[in-house]
Amino acid sequence: PPASPIPLFLPPPPGPIAAARSPAYSGLPRRRRCEASRDLFLDFANALVSPKLAPLCPSGGSPRLPGVTLDSSPQLPRILCIVFPARLEPMMFRKPTEECLLYEENCKHFPQHMLQFFSLTLAECSSNNGLIQLYGYIAARDGRDRMLNYVLNHSRDDPVIVQQRSLIQMTGPKRGIEMYSPVFIEFDLRVKNGGQEEDDLQLIDGAIACYDQKPWRPIKHRINGKCGTVDISLAYVEHAVEATIEVVVSEVHSGFSLSLSSLIYIMENYEEIPLFHGTIDQSRGLRRFVVAVTSGTVMKLKFRFGSNNVERCCSFKAKLHGCVRRQIKHELASITVKVYWSTI
Residues 217, 267: contact at Cβ < 8 Å? Predict the structure, then answer.
């Protein structure tokens, strides 16, 4: 996607992305970081609805979020919350109620504006080891439960291996990310650099807030860290429903590479979301994928098989409720796809 036309820090009126990096936040252990960020989410949400508060980036001053200290005197934000990963599940309303079935026009379920991550890219890293082992997390907090909805989450014992300027395969989100209120995105990624955790390098550490009242196409937002840079691509999808995608690969005759991506329609264009890339050597199911799709539009799933990248596609029209099944036959394997539609 093109570079973001929106500066990282804007004078009032604010743009959709602002950032917070501070000694009060970045230096905390993971559990206390999570507690602090959840509390800051509340402060930030309150700030956006209060016209009396100072702008995010006062003219000539340091960019800041309410409640985050950015000067040289660290001040720990108050810690009032309990830390848990997101508890709400996807597909919560995939089955229509009796009222929905009898009187479709009276259905009480509606599309919602949602935030969609398109890709994560390791743009730069000071480590010159070729293959780089990353661990840590990127997570979103929305107004539904304000808990961590992981977009990427790897432990130190199970790092993801990437190269510079390559995509980092996402592991989430667990459910759709609501954009009715500001979304707080927290990140702490590190480079495994030896046998001891003390030898590891901090890649990026901090948080950004996304907020706006109008949709935008995927934009690239660059996060600069102590020893590298990560690009995130994300978009505001209006009137969206939640597509939960389940893929089962069967009848595998020999090992082959498989890529899967989703194409969703945003502002008169189809935009691609890489979902999976890996080697298939036996029958198995892939992880569950959750994608925000504008209601009434068509989502396309594109499979690429083998080294020749032979493509197979299937399409699904977004709706409020239900489940649709598709079967793809290929000489290398058989693919069963189920897409569950739900509001959030």
Answer: yes
Tell me the C-alpha distance between 215 and 292, whole Å.
13
List the chain pLDDT tens, one digit each, 344 residues: 444 333 232 223 345 665 544 434 455 555 555 555 555 555 554 444 332 222 222 222 223 333 322 222 233 233 223 356 777 777 777 777 776 765 666 677 889 999 999 999 999 998 866 899 999 999 999 988 888 999 999 999 999 999 999 999 999 899 999 998 889 999 999 999 888 899 999 999 999 888 776 778 898 999 999 899 999 999 999 999 999 999 999 999 889 999 999 999 998 899 999 999 999 999 999 999 999 999 999 999 999 998 888 999 999 999 999 999 999 999 999 999 999 999 98
d(CA 109, CA 234): 25
Q: How far apart are CA 222 and CA 3, in angstroms?
A: 9
Please check whether residue 176 is in contact with residue 288, taking contact to mean a CB–CB distance below 8 angstroms.
Answer: no
Tokens 């989430």, located at residue: 172
Alpha-carbon gap, residue 48 to 79, rounded angstroms: 21
The pTM for the full model equals 0.77
Where helices occur in 49-190 by DSSP H, the ranges are 98-102
Q: Could you tell me which residues come within 8 angstroms of residue 202 by beta carbon, excluding any fewer than 6 positions away?
A: 190, 191, 225, 226, 227
As a dihedral over the C-alpha atoms of residue 326, residue 330, residue 332, residue 333, rounded to 10 degrees, the angle is: 20
